[in-house]
């Protein structure tokens, strides 16, 4: 018996684009076929173009975290000193990955809900920086362009790596022109496809510094194979096809189509914040200009638990997200990052108001 599933108002996974759904219904494609090679080449080229990069994009089986670890191990040697500003759960993940790889993270702690600034760069030598663009746990968009400029001014040879898991295709982002050397994301966010495929972008400076590292997550091994249209290991080829088809359907002109899409996502998130303001909800981001278009985050209103709020949204056919880390049980998050028709979005806004009006 088919189970009715709530529509997703979560910051990942997200509602799938129709092109992704269609790709998933096709017969299984063999990953060593000429058709698969064409898909790999085509997707890599589209991904690089969407970040305006002269470098290369690498595909990895796994979530965005797989790409985070792969990039850290491929670009930094043990004992490298990397700045990691922590203002949320996913910045903490950079710290954990850096320590697991034997690096020496230079951690600066910031309030969850605040944006990191260039003046927060700590004193002393650094070999790189691991930054978070859209911090999904707080709904904050950090100014990675100005942070990268501060790093480059201090240490011109330092490599700047960015977690773009929920900002790719949702917020403005470029690689080299923003002073970024590498970025990572995944299929289950702005690409509106199923989980299982990670992306790593390497700008020319990063490609020059790339070194063999590990086995399965060795970017140098993957890059060598993918330049031939192959992959080093069995890829989630149907997800490769799904992402390829979504990018082709949603943004056929590449970056020329993206500005309109960014505006749509920003407006959708702004409308959730506007509804929240009408209801007296307190937003998690401390400043309006720091709000990420990927996620709207609010403190729970008096009288609500996270579980009760989730159940109230589920009754109306929606799945929402709770808090993480020190914000667990204190906030809730909604996201229009996935695929929505205009009518579905209007229903989401109205149901948001109806649920929260009970508080």
TrEMBL record:
It comes from the Bacteria. Its cofactor is pyridoxal 5'-phosphate. Substrate binds at residue 333. The modification N6-(pyridoxal phosphate)lysine is found at residue 189. GO terms for molecular function: alanine-glyoxylate transaminase activity; L-serine-pyruvate transaminase activity. GO terms for biological process: glycine biosynthetic process, by transamination of glyoxylate. Pfam families: Aminotran_5. PROSITE patterns: AA_TRANSFER_CLASS_5 (PS00595). Keywords: Aminotransferase, Pyridoxal phosphate, Transferase. InterPro entries: Aminotrans_V_dom, Aminotrans_V_PyrdxlP_BS, PyrdxlP-dep_Trfase, PyrdxlP-dep_Trfase_major, PyrdxlP-dep_Trfase_small, SP_NH2Trfase/AEP_transaminase. Residues 27-248 form the Aminotransferase class V domain. Belongs to the class-V pyridoxal-phosphate-dependent aminotransferase family. This is Aminotransferase class V. It comes from Oceanithermus profundus (strain DSM 14977 / NBRC 100410 / VKM B-2274 / 506).
């Amino acid at each position: 018996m088919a189970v009715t599933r709530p529509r997703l108002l979560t910051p990942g996974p997200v509602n799938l684009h129709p092109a992704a759904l269609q790709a998933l219904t096709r017969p299984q494609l063999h990953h060593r076929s000429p058709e698969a090679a064409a898909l790999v080449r085509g997707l890599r080229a589209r991904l690089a173009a969407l970040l305006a990069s002269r470098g290369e994009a690498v595909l990895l089986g796994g979530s965005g975290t797989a790409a985070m670890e792969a990039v850290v191990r491929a670009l930094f040697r043990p004992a490298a000193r990397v700045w990691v500003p922590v203002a949320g759960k996913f910045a903490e993940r950079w710290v954990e990955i850096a320590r697991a790889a034997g690096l020496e993270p230079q951690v600066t702690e910031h309030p969850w809900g605040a944006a990191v600034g260039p003046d927060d760069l700590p004193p002393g030598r650094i070999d790189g920086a691991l930054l978070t663009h859209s911090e999904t746990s707080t709904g904050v968009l950090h100014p990675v362009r100005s942070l990268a400029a501060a790093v480059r001014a201090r240490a011109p040879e330092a490599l700047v790596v960015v977690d773009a898991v929920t900002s790719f295709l949702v917020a403005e982002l470029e690689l080299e022109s923003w002073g970024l050397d590498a970025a990572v994301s995944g299929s289950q966010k702005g690409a509106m496809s199923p989980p299982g495929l990670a992306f790593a972008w390497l700008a020319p400076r990063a490609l020059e510094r790339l070194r063999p590292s590990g086995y399965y997550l060795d970017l140098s091994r993957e890059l060598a194979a993918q330049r031939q249209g192959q992959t080093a290991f069995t890829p989630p080829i149907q997800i490769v096809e799904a992402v390829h088809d979504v990018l082709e359907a949603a943004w056929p002109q590449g970056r020329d189509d993206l500005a309109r899409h960014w505006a749509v996502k920003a407006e959708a998130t702004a409308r959730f914040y506007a509804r929240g303001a009408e209801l007296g909800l307190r937003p998690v981001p401390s400043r309006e200009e720091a709000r990420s278009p990927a996620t709207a985050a609010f403190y729970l209103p008096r009288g609500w638990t996270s579980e009760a709020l989730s159940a109230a949204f589920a009754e109306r056919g929606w799945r929402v997200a709770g808090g993480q880390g020190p914000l667990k049980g204190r906030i809730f998050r909604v996201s229009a990052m996935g695929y929505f028709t205009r009518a579905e979005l209007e229903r989401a806004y109205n149901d948001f108001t109806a649920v929260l009006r009970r508080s």
